């Protein structure tokens, strides 16, 4: 019986949006890296497998963060007093320029990956910078850590500062080099096409990236309709375009291969229809959308239309890597959106947001974010014994209490694709 | 030189709203429980005093939380899927009923006070329950801990469940007993008149409480215009009233003695004028207002009008006792309010919110929340050396980074009124 084991504990996950599956003192059997099944008692066929008993702890799928900027981790919690466009110029671009220096990149990326590990993020979709070498480094380091990630070298060939810009040709050339080298290099870490956003990418660059996405069958991530200032700039740059989304779409970067668009705060109905048609993922960045005064994305509307949605920290527009924090913030803004929108779009409850933070975003990685059979076994073991609890709580309530009042100290173990992942120690 | 000492470190506080005073490697001289002065070098007159050197740490005023419900701490992070009125009935009232049991009260209150200590809250305005004995217990325990607090036995004589209601007479009698016994008992812990809110207090009860407030010269705390459902209920109960605030005002409970009103999300212009005239404090409860789908209070407007404002966790409508969390949440909703309000009310920046979380709320306690001469020395020593910092930061930036990304682990020492307060150990 090769590579088979079981973990035992209070299992909770969401197969369907907003519906908890709960198994008190249950077992998850893992074969190779996949979930074989979830059982209240182990059948005879599993008599000889190793059982790891986590006692009264809670076992949940690992958190999936589908949008964050690795270099901006150095700015975490700083400079949140501006809106998107001046924020990029004052804080973000100067920081990102530093990643031409591989030593500096290694210093920040080491700490970032440790913190992701700490907060129980087992999979992430990550923007690096325009720099080829530190982008490769980041992929190597994610691989070394054992966490799963899509990592994108960023593309920017216009409206960018002199110290952080590429030629169209170099941008495409470096991107293709990474695709060739990394597409099959690692099983849990993959490259992703990453035009920063329309303002910094010429049409020629976008079309070139669309060709690469198709040629190498790789996914795409970018930003869409985050902030008023950004949107008017896009309109100015592309008076001919039907809307912001269509510019990506015309370049083959809007669902031709699997695509994530971050924010989508201010998308119009035509853009939403295109997202539905092309199955474009939304990365919902509640903290960032509040911090940078962008607004509240219409997440309930996206979900009702069938658009796939995941949650995201959007560091460092977001100030916290903790997906528990991101869930709470997403709940809060969905409540505020509900009031704002004449009480049409029902607020998102904890079970719904938990789904988005696990299986919702996990879908972008394949079968990830659930304990259904055939899913990669990504899991967190939560010990809530030191939280202030004064009465018997259901597993659902314990999960909610952990999300709202716990922190990284309550996360005792992390599994990714069947492996127990220890704190990364980079040399 | 009796009872004089100095602390040394990177000092930052706000004398004026939104304006940091910063002294790198400075000294705060403390005489008895008061700040004597803040100096970059110590004068000869202080040659022989004890100096406690906190090295590169940051020294800030203690946090002041001007609205929270002690018994609801047991529900922290639970049941946030309802709006105010059903939330009270489903979760809050059943929990509060348990505090007729003094043993249970002691268990929860011990942990609550430890957690307040942990998060660096040095002063708090607290609702207990209707129960006289556990309200007294809470005052005794706050005194024992060394933290400062106004603690109110709650009054409720109508529209309350059978298991959590008083007669008007008993409510007034028990309140007066506490006022007699506790008004001068402790220096840092004081009683406060605490009608829950208009829906649960008859006019006779309110007027009786107004008489007691005046007779014993004690302050008042209650709730005002938090949620749509609550406000329509108040209108139904008092068709004769000019507005919600006037009901408190007519009973002598709206600034006749120093008064805090929590929430004030939906106050109208007449109510705002009355708050200005009567110098009524607003307890701004950003987390709670989002969690219970109440809305966003117009804090910038209050401040522009000269209304005193402090920040509050409002546990357990709020899910976190951390005033760092409350500052972040307050920043986020003020950004969202700005967008909502056609960009009139400028968002609150970190320095402004830091002022509200220290000196703003501290004013309710007298000279508290600043390091100006004559202020009671409440302070936190912040060690940010393990936060991910990759470049030289100013003290202001380090404070911001602590607020946005740090937690209780970064708080190394807590002072209240000149005393270094150790973790409370209740027997
Ligand atoms: Zn982003
Ligand atoms: Zn309250």
Automatic annotation (TrEMBL), chains A, B:
<dbReference type="InterPro" id="IPR051607">
    <property type="entry name" value="Metallo-dep_hydrolases"/>
</dbReference>
<dbReference type="InterPro" id="IPR006680">
    <property type="entry name" value="Amidohydro-rel"/>
</dbReference>
<protein>
    <recommendedName>
        <fullName>Guanine deaminase</fullName>
        <ecNumber>3.5.4.3</ecNumber>
    </recommendedName>
</protein>
<dbReference type="Pfam" id="PF01979">
    <property type="entry name" value="Amidohydro_1"/>
</dbReference>
<dbReference type="InterPro" id="IPR011059">
    <property type="entry name" value="Metal-dep_hydrolase_composite"/>
</dbReference>
<dbReference type="GO" id="GO:0008892">
    <property type="term" value="F:guanine deaminase activity"/>
</dbReference>
<comment type="pathway">
    <text>Purine metabolism; guanine degradation; xanthine from guanine: step 1/1.</text>
</comment>
<keyword id="KW-0862">Zinc</keyword>
<keyword id="KW-0479">Metal-binding</keyword>
<comment type="function">
    <text>Catalyzes the hydrolytic deamination of guanine, producing xanthine and ammonia.</text>
</comment>
<comment type="similarity">
    <text>Belongs to the metallo-dependent hydrolases superfamily. ATZ/TRZ family.</text>
</comment>
<feature type="domain" description="Amidohydrolase-related">
    <location>
        <begin position="58"/>
        <end position="419"/>
    </location>
</feature>
<keyword id="KW-0378">Hydrolase</keyword>
<dbReference type="InterPro" id="IPR014311">
    <property type="entry name" value="Guanine_deaminase"/>
</dbReference>
<dbReference type="InterPro" id="IPR032466">
    <property type="entry name" value="Metal_Hydrolase"/>
</dbReference>
């Amino acid at each position: 019986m090769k590579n088979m084991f079981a973990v035992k504990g209070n299992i909770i996950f969401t197969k369907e949006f907003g519906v908890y599956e709960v198994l008190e003192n249950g077992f998850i059997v893992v074969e190779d890296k996949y979930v074989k099944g979830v059982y209240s008692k182990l059948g005879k066929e599993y008599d000889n497998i190793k059982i790891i008993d986590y006692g009264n702890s809670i076992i949940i799928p690992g958190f999936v963060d589908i949008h964050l900027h690795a270099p901006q981790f150095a700015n975490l919690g700083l400079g949140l007093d501006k809106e998107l466009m001046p924020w990029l110029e004052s804080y973000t671009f100067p920081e990102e320029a530093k990643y031409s220096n591989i030593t500096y990149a290694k210093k920040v990326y080491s700490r970032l990956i440790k913190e992701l590990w700490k907060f129980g993020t087992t999979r992430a979709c990550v923007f690096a910078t325009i720099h080829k070498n530190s982008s490769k480094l980041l992929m190597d380091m994610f691989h070394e850590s054992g966490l799963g990630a899509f990592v994108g070298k960023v593309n920017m060939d216009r409206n960018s500062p002199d110290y952080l810009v590429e030629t169209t040709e170099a941008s495409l050339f470096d991107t293709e080099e990474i695709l060739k080298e990394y597409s099959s290099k690692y099983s849990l870490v993959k490259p992703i096409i990453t035009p920063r956003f329309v303002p910094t990418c010429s049409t020629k660059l976008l079309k070139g990236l669309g060709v690469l996405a198709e040629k190498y069958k790789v996914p795409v991530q970018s930003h869409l309709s985050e902030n008023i200032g950004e949107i008017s700039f896009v309109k100015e740059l592309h008076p001919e375009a039907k809307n912001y989304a269509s510019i990506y779409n015309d370049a083959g970067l809007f669902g031709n291969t699997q695509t994530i668009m971050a924010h989508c705060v201010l998308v119009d109905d035509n853009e939403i229809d295109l997202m539905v048609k092309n199955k474009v993922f939304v990365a919902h960045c509640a903290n960032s959308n509040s911090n940078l005064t962008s607004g509240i994305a219409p997440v309930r509307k996206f979900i009702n239309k069938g658009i796939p949605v995941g949650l995201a920290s959007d560091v460092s527009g977001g100030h916290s890597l903790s997906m528990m924090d991101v869930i709470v913030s997403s709940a809060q803004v969905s409540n505020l959106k509900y009031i704002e929108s004449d009480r049409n779009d029902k607020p998102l409850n904890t079970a719904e947001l938990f789904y988005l933070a696990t299986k919702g975003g996990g879908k972008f990685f394949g079968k990830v974010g659930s304990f259904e059979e055939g899913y990669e076994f990504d899991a967190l073991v939560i010990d809530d014994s030191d939280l202030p609890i004064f009465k018997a709580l259901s597993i659902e309530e314990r999960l909610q209490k952990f999300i709202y009042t716990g922190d990284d100290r309550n996360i005792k173990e992390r599994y990714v694709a069947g492996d127990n992942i220890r704190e990364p120690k980079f040399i």
